[in-house]
Amino acid sequence: MASITIDGIVKQFGGNTVLQNLSLHIPDGAFYTLLGPSGCGKTTLLRCIAGFYEPDAGRLLFDKDDVTRVSTHHRDIGMVFQDYALFPDKTAFDNVAYGLRARRVAKPEISRRVTEALDKVGLGALADRYPAQMSGGQRQRVALARALVIRPRVLLMDEPLSNLDAKMRLQMRDVILDLVREAGITTVFVTHDQEEALAMSDRIAIMDRGRIAQLGTPEELYGTPVNAYVADFIGSANVLQVKTSASSEGAPHVRYELAGHTLNGVADAADAAAPAGAGVLIARPEDLSLMAPAPHVPNAVLGQVLRRQYLGFKTAYRIQLDSGPEIRVELHAGNTVADFHQGDRVQVLVPADCRVVAA
Ligand SMILES: Nc1ncnc2c1ncn2[C@@H]1O[C@H](COP(=O)(O)OP(=O)(O)OP(=O)(O)O)[C@@H](O)[C@H]1O
């Protein structure tokens, strides 16, 4: 077990800089997820931590040990891949035993630890099966047991759930979390599935073209995304260009123009000093609400229902704001406000704590 310090890592392929001076500290025992769209550099970063790639600049530390130039098999890491990467000609037992045999662990101890590891992942009865005789979920459990049985300092997982069906993915989330929590092992998990990231992580690093756009707890990323990219990547958000001006209440409050109305919002701390200009309103559909048009309602914008979609636990609306953009609103079942239909005139209520960030 060890903390991981990534200090100013740069990685280039040809002329293409894939990791741009990236720094990140992962405390001992924490579960961190790298999340981002295809090609943002998640796997490259994981491979630098694993030692498959040597960075062009920067350092990598496990605790205080500089492992930047240490080879993969001396880094003491466990790895789990999307495609399991099991040996097809070895049984589950022998797959899990492989790392211990390579480390010349005594036979009785190998037997004890492998049996224990297979039991932990619920495969005690399948020790003699070959990978081809197992389901995807079972194979991934073998891969997990194989990674953990060597008691690595760091566990690295590259999209380990993406080849599994939806139900198995949910089950394996719990299996993984139970095992890594019990072992107290520092884990770096790569996914492009935002729900998986939210459900599993202590902290999520959202990556954008080789940089970290935001690092935070799931609640921080969802509740206070620093920019439109993060807001749009985690959950869904209305991301609307607005013109901002200073609020009489002072920072962090800000006023902004949306579809001909002046509303109150909250500015990002970094932008609070310069409130006048172009901004971006970030409003989650579930934070907005609807009412029939009425005079003198603060923080409301007029529009018309373009589409109403009933989704059981919620109803999703697309509203065309009068001489403004479209905006999405979601009302949850049990919400007592009246229902609206296509063509209805409505007033969209935008809470005054909705955030406006730099454009
Ligand atoms: N070995 C390599 N040689 C050249 N370019 C590479 C190599 N590995 C990755 N790249 C490039 O680096 C960029 C980042 O790739 P990376 O695999 O790290 O992205 P990712 O975020 O993991 O994407 P995905 O979710 O699709 O796996 C891509 O543009 C990719 O084409």
Automatic annotation (TrEMBL):
Signal peptide: none annotated. The keyword Flavoprotein does not apply. Keywords: ATP-binding, Cell membrane, Membrane, Nucleotide-binding, Transport. Pfam families: ABC_tran, TOBE_2. Residues 4-234 form the ABC transporter domain. One of its GO terms (molecular function) is transmembrane transporter activity. GO terms for biological process: quaternary ammonium group transport. One of its GO terms (cellular component) is ATP-binding cassette (ABC) transporter complex. InterPro entries: AAA+_ATPase, ABC_SmlMolc_Importer, ABC_transporter-like_ATP-bd, ABC_transporter-like_CS, Mo/tungstate-bd_C_term_dom, P-loop_NTPase, Transp-assoc_OB_typ2. This is ABC transporter ATP-binding protein. It comes from Diaphorobacter ruginosibacter.
